[in-house]
């Protein structure tokens, strides 16, 4: 059974690394966050917690 040369292992590692980086970049930039409108922002900011100890 023939063995792979070190350069072939290195090229395989580079190939899989590039695929991994591209896949992560695509997932990061294609994900769209839901924009909050002003009404939802005011609801979040107006929560006032007054602790009674």
UniProtKB/TrEMBL annotation:
Transmembrane segment boundaries: 6-31
Membrane topology: Single-pass membrane protein
UniProt GO BP: proton motive force-driven ATP synthesis
Keyword Membrane part of the UniProt annotation: yes
Protein's UniProt keywords contain Transferase: no
Subunit structure as annotated in this protein's UniProt entry: F-type ATPases have 2 components, CF(1) - the catalytic core - and CF(0) - the membrane proton channel.
Family membership: Belongs to the ATPase protein 8 family.
Name listed for the protein in its UniProt record: ATP synthase complex subunit 8
